[in-house]
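Q: I'm writing a short explainer about Precorrin-6A synthase [deacetylating] for a general audience and would like to include a description of its predicted shape. Could you first generate the structure from this sequence?
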Amino acid sequence: MIDLHLIGIGTGNPDHLTRQAEAAMNAADLILLPRKGDAKSDLIDLRRTLCATVLTRPVRVVEFDLPVRADGGDYLAAVGDWHDAIAATWTAQIARHLPHGGRLALLVWGDPSLYDSTLRIAERLQTGGMAMRVHIAPGIASLQALTAAHAIPLNTLGAPVVVTTGRRLRDDGWPQSADTVAVMLDGACAFTTLDPEGVSIWWGAYLGMAQQALAAGPLGVTAPEIVIRRAALRAEHGWIMDTYLLRRKRQVA
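A: Of course. Here's the predicted structure. Afterward I'll give you a sentence or two in plain language.
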């Protein structure tokens, strides 16, 4: 039996860890750390730093190379194939390092429940016949870090918030019945495709990290600034993780 602990680590800042997360890391028999290539070496370094800071007892920490998602073609099919490959990699690591079962911990950016596929990958292992119990230590999601950094509420009074992706925003436009739209996973600056009239944006990259970058203001003015700044940051660091909130004034009849 594998007890899989998915531990939300926010943006990798040790101050973002809950006591539950720290306890789960220290109770683990094995912590697996994925490597995502040289361009994202900062991410594995952050996980290493977390382990060095939080662990108070000897815990085996093993790094492994994460499979790369194929570009082009059908997006959902490519993601499905990628998740299958990750599940196979997890299975190989478990067979090698926890052949008799035990407590396995994976450190998940943000929170495991919000725009992260770790739970779906774990389900593949369970449906594939692996005896596994899944436990979650929730973490600070990027939207929480974003609204905290800008000191703004997520929603307006009595109004809904739609959480979507850059792909959906670009293809479908502004979601109906929403005053506020939180956008994740936008590598193409889909906010530039919207009518900016009456819309404000709050953007953040590397939230909670030393290199945190923020921008906010009317969309028509701020969007071009974000595009330029985002490209420069990506070139400087070799990778970028960012998110943003859009809010438009409610139309008065």
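A: For your explainer, you could say: The helical segments are 19-27, 41-54, 75-97, 118-127, 142-150, 166-172, 219-237.
Q: Perfect, that's easy to follow.
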